Batch of 2 targets.
Target 1
Amino acid sequence: VLDWPSAVSFTTRTTYPPVRRLARAQKKRILVTGGAGFVGSHLVDRLMFLGHDVVVLDNFFSGSKCTLSHWVGHPNFELVRGDVVEPLLIEVDQIYHLACPASPKAYQLNAVKTLKTSFIGTQNMLGLAKRTKARFLLSSTCYDEGKRVAEALTYGYARQDGVDVRVARIFNCFGPRMSLDDGRLVSNFAVAALKGEPLQIYGDGQATRSLMFVHDLITGLIALMDSSYSEGPVNIGTVDEGTVLSWAEEILSLVKELRAAGSIAPLPLGQLESTIEFVPAVVDDPPRRKPDISRAKEQLGWEPKWPVRAGLEETILYFARQLEEGQN
Ligand code: NAD
Ligand code: UDP
């Protein structure tokens, strides 16, 4: 006798995070490329909460299916494994184009593929926007070669073909679901502090960065997409500028506080707390990053709301859970 439960018991999942009910006229079909990544998955969460139909296209190069598992099977949600360098034929109202290896480790792994993703991938998604008359938002950054070509293509399609475009230039965003090993400041320092390993500063630590918690970025991206402002790129970031050394000290002290409060596991017996260590600088490391966000304030009525410290705390707790799960 085959002792196997009926298939129905596998298909009646009803426990999803809550989503708003929208009237058909307000409900948009939204494509998020790179939606399984760090920023993309938070964007998908917000768009789902708002009640839209969301399609994610991702090749899982640096993203993970786990970031979206809580939506799989929901009638408003669809996850497509695919590569933006291949054309995609679907009908959509909006496209958030985020697909691109973003961390230094990921984009240096295969520089040609990164450029193809930026160039051919963006061209394909702009072509899709042109055919479907969808509004297109590019997640850009400050003067990286691939993004430069992606921005040029985006404004080219806007001028020549009348595609309705938005360009966000994103500055140093962090939060839960960042990869533990992506090589960026917050993940490197937080994971090192949690493991009791040295926090390595490249150079003298006097370069500055302004850190933004991911929920502020998502609010900014949606505000930009829904705004009428299409004339030029909009910086999305914070003005909470600090030196790399000061961020290392803050993250280390937060980890110690959380450990003292019992919110994260103590270090193994005999293991000392992390120290801060200076190692040789990396080439072409920008000495300063502090975005001018006046355009976002004026045009979108957007400004960051999250205190960086609260964001860092949530992110450290996330990393601590990930490390604990990895050990089991
Ligand atoms: P991420 O690596 O977590 O996400 C990128 C996603 O794109 C991943 O899920 C990856 O699998 C997917 N992807 C990569 N190449 C693809 C391809 N060819 N086809 C389909 N999917 C592909 O990175 P992130 O931090 O979430 O960044 C998202 C976007 O925001 C990127 O475009 C990045 O350049 C931009 N950005 C992020 C920051 C930041 O601070 N996080 C700063 C500036 C710009
Ligand atoms: N950084 C560092 N140690 C690390 C990771 C980063 O000193 O383990 C420095 C890096 O050299 C840079 C800053 O932190 O000056 C921010 O690096 P990140 O890669 O997060 O962002 P970006 O340089 O792209 O702004």
Note: The CA atoms of residues 11 and 260 lie 44 Å apart.
Target 2
Amino acid sequence: MTDSPVDPTSTDAWDRLTTLAEAFAPDLRAWFEADPERVDRMTHTAADLHVDLSKNLADDDVVAALLALAGEVRLTERRDAMLRGDHINVTEDRAVLHTALRLPRDATLQVDGQDVVADVHEVLDRVYAFAGDVRSGAWTGVTGEQIATVVNIGIGGSDLGPVMAYEALAPYADGPECRFISNIDPTDAARTLEGLDPATTLFIVSSKTFGTLETLTNARLCKAWLLDGLRSSGAIGGDDDSSSGAVAKHFVAVSTALDKVAAFGIDPANAFGFWDWVGGRYSMDSAIGTSLVVAVGPERFDEMLAGMHAMDEHFRASDLAQNVPALMGLLNVWYTNFLGAQTHAVLPYAQLLHRFPAYLQQLTMESNGKSVRWDGSPVTTDTGEVFWGEPGTNGQHAFYQLIHQGTRLIPADFIAVAEPAYPLKDAHDGQSTDVHGLFLANFFAQTKALAFGKTADEVRAEGTPEAVVPARVFEGNRPTTSIMAPALTPSVLGQLIALYEHITFTQGVVWGIDSFDQWGVELGKQLAQQVAPAVAGDAEALAEQDPSTRSLISYYLEHRS
Ligand code: F6P
């Protein structure tokens, strides 16, 4: 299904939403008072997630118009096309099948003449066997010692997902320690390798294309570090034969380009593949998650996949009026295109999710930061809001001021789990306080304050001097979605990831864009190659640069040692 996108602004629903927005006077206090059913009507369950949409700036008319918009832009048809493997990534002529990565073993899905489920499970089995060997100590380094540390080398989708999940599932980690190198700033490799013993370190080079400058450069740095270290400890000799033996024991790769893996010197037997129908930012549940499997084990990884599948099923099978990813995506459209929001905060009240906002930045912004539609025509409306966030309560003491009292509308997703990973008690003055309860009190208080604010009369009633009253008024009507789950299990993490994948998809369909390509990162990559000779001191290349770039490079050349 690669037909032309529907121009959302040409739909009846868009006209209706425009009219509603013109007369819109949200009043969450009044809405809640007048409508005792609001919270029940707007709270939905998606797998294990309890999602309260009631503090959003939307009444029944807005929700109805958004659902009508979804119908007019054919959201469900596009969703079904994605799930069955149509080439909806039009600019790259590819299927978009990250959902197939978590289909159960007994499912089948024929795409382009191939049963992709069988392929997925064949690779998963190899990853699980490898990870099992590393975890048990059956896989040893060249000296015969067990692997103590696994270092994933990758960037973007080949890094952010594994890092985020490794942090989120830290309480489940019972395998070797994992570290991650992504940035081509040599500081990253230098600091990450600090304190490691080459004899007990295993590198996973993760790159969908195996052509990414950062990753290949870091892989070479790590190879040199490994061989130098092994040579200087006498573990290997200086000859090529013992070097290649060491590389085979200390380097594995994950990629769709297995020929390039072999060319790099990694034994194809130690390479795990995936497919062009998995986008980089949608790949953490493919073999790109190998480091995570080593850390938490195949069983936990399977639980995460099952959680993702449960959310996929919710997105596939639920009526749109109860479909959480669809509703959240449509609300984002409402805020972006009708109420003027430009950013969207994601605020996890779970320290273990501290890398979740960074992960979502690639997922959402690389997917939906587009100015043309999938048929090449210009978009007809704004796309792709800026996603950002930090875990609560740190954010409260940093940027919440602007969310509460600033002039900008910032829809925010609050995420919390009931069961703490670490149930610590604070004992003082003869009392014992559950610290996680205190933490969640902040979660509940913040969404309440943002929604209902504090009126001037309420501020005055506290005895506040009149001159200071305006500064202490909270307007309220700041929209939030509250997402809660019983605990941050591997399954719940998987559900959260898939939830945001489908929110992103929903918005992309409304805007008519291909959420699965990323041409916008190419120009910078090309120019980096073109500028590199000038940076290395080539006078001719320097002269070819524009005046500002020339001046900046000259500054660098003058100041480096
Ligand atoms: O930033 C562009 C990008 O292509 C991302 O989409 C991708 O996740 C990242 O680079 C890394 O690419 P690769 O996995 O091919 O090294």
Note: The two ends are 57 Å apart (CA to CA).
